[in-house]
User: Fold these one by one.
Assistant:
Number 1:
Amino acid sequence: MSVEQRSYETNNGSLPYLFSPVSDNAKQPAPLVLFLHGGRDRGTDLNVLLKWGLPRFVDLSDSLPYVFAAPQIPAEQTWADRADDVLALLDELIASQPVDPARVILAGFSLGSAGIWHVAALHPNRFAGLVPVSGRVPKTLGESELAALKDIPVQIFQGGQDKNLPIEDTENFVERLRKVGGKVDLTVLPEGDHFIADEVYSDPKLQQWLVSLSRRNTALVV
């Protein structure tokens, strides 16, 4: 389906983003999947995001049962720098699109995964699910922030051959999150390196999981 290129004006300047509406035959408010890209996709050209991962999957799909948005930050910034703007964009999409605010999922790759942990820890009641792929967890995330995330189902994906990210660090974090009652699943792709996004986001089970979630019912599993 055709992905639109848009821009949202914030107090910190414009925030360009990719946008794809829900399929035309949707009769009820739809989930929203908000995607935060990795470090190498920063810049001023939204076409870069369409080359791979979740934006590419959305662009190549005939129709999808969720609204999709993927903002882009400049080369020198991190998602922590624009967290307030991401939330402002989310509010704009909820106000202007047929989006169910109880069914907002944050997905992120690499730098974007660190971003979704940061945003979700600040606003845990805004999100129905998290999908971090090939991403570090911010070291500033303490036990109180982890406890705030315990009611958000999480699917973590990592390549077994990822040279940028020790699997032990991810496993230790998963254990910490589970100890505070977190609903988290870790999927390791044994032969995968850091760049596993195409394989992860195109998986039918994950796509089904994205639309199964709601803050009104957090007991749903894949």
Number 2:
Amino acid sequence: MSSKHLGESVHDLLDGRLRGDKAYAAMAHLGECEECASRFHELKEGRDALTSSEAGIDMRFAQKLLDRERIAEIAAGEASLGHKPRRPVRRAPVIAAATLVVIAVVLVGVAWQVGAPGEVTLAFAAPRASGAAPVAYANTQQMRSGDMLQSWIHPDFSTSGVIPVEATVVQRTDGGMVLVATILAGPYGKQVTVVQQHGYLSQNATAQMPRADVKNAEVYVVENEGYSPMVVWQTGDVVVAMSCECSLTTLESVAEEFPSASDPGFADRVAHGFSTLASAVHP
């Protein structure tokens, strides 16, 4: 030890980390080496000054923190407490749930678009001319019960002066369903033909049409020279066309017997869209 300086070992000696022969050799070296002895005493005086200062700094705690052996003991003690390591966050279920939500939103959006009624032109008023095939029929009594007419617009046959005769649901070649009904109206029992289709009446079709005198609806008069008068209007998501060999006044009075309807709600439109999609997949 006398052949070289203590170097960093002077800190170990000052901290009391040297034991046995190493501590004895270091102390012997201090007695022989003036440079190492001077450094040892400077460090000791500095430490004593901090320990005894008015600020009350207790270096014993700092010494314990700097003591590598003490730190190792603390670490060993913490390991023996049996703390379980933190489990990593499982992101797969979260990602799967988020993916399902996105898919559901997309499907609902598609169903909403598919469930939207299409545009209806005046050609729907002559369904039999387009090769439509009948798919359902109702006689007078069945029309009064209203079972087949639930999704269509019709007067209250029990309170109005309109008398039901028969109704047929036909399917057009493009797949659209059309209701063709016959009713009797007016004091002389004029036969009136009512044609209905779900959708929205084309604005171009009514742009130049005159308005009929009907209080509860925007009813338009279809002017066909040489033909029976016809009126057409939109109520909810149903377009109604009505014609007869009678006066326009008679048609206007019959149109007032039809109630106003509201557009289908969100759930109904989405349900109709899913039904349409299902029919397309499994016709």
Number 3:
Amino acid sequence: MAYDVEGYSGLGQEAQFDVQRRLRALIDGACDRAGLSPGEYEVQPQGDGGLALLPTGGKVDEPRLIAAFLRTVTAGLGGVNGLRDAGSRIRLRMALHEGVVYRADHGYVGDAVVESFRMCDAGPVRDALRRNPAADLVLVAADRLYQDVLRHGHHGIPGDSFVPHLLRVKLFEAHGWLFVPGGDSGPAPARDRSQDAPGVTPVADTLDGDRPYDLW
């Protein structure tokens, strides 16, 4: 999970100290309330954002963990932001991915790590946060994770409220699934049907992003 605070660079130093303190409390609190002990997850902080590695496989119920984590992050943002004005609220872009990750000398190595941060920086994700000024969280999920875990709606995950978008950042290009809790995830981009192979349904046509959701 990669995450980044919107508008951090425009803050003064005292405000940045405050945002970092609240951000770490938010991530640790969300993991704790999702049932994770400190040894079951790792966080690589990067000032205005970071990388969190959550457990997977074995006895881990991934849909339950993700659902609990996302609920607690959403609720936690309300707590750490309180009645603060728009300029001091923590507003997050967050990307979820899955893949093999290795510990290295200066952090973590793996395609999923790089792609998570690219997804966070993608135009549709940034646009979604600007389009929803009352929202404090925009979530984007990698296509593989969405198809494997999120789309089925287990444990109340609003799978039918994720909207597919094409994400392009530098040399990275992939489909991702966007969700704004309580907000507008935006329409899926139009596709040139002439480029699709016969009999293949384009990813942008597999979901109706306007379906309502009840649990978020």
Number 4:
Amino acid sequence: MQDQNSHEPERFPVRRLEIYDKSKGFIDLLSQLTQCNPISDEEFQSRFHDLASYGDDHVICVVEDDRSHKIIATGSVFIEKKFIRSCGKVGHIEDVVVDSSARGQHLGQKIIRFLSDHAKSMGCYKVILDCDVEKKGFYEKCGFKEKGVQMSLYFDRSKIPRV
């Protein structure tokens, strides 16, 4: 057991996504969450720079295993600026996933805390997310409460122009 006052670095710190994280298994990790087709290095770099242009309004965070140097957890938050609530802001958490080999180490909670703290620091009056029913208990442990119903409308990807 590690001493609480130890000066050793934390094994699983949360940090922002970096451009080199694709080679550390970032896309493979996302594939454990949902369909995530392979993308080229150029496509990754282009999307990375596009998202980085939003500054603190769109943050992707990761946990890198300091031994394997693989990305083993991730999540993102984007800030929606609204007219309601005195031009308030809402944080939307998305794409939270922990590698199947690293579950049970509270990495998901660390990701959620990092993203929620970021939304709060940006002046958001709330942070929201959608999840599958079987994940409800996890998010309740993180302090979230069920509210409303999620609705989805999916588009035929073959008819969506690539921008």
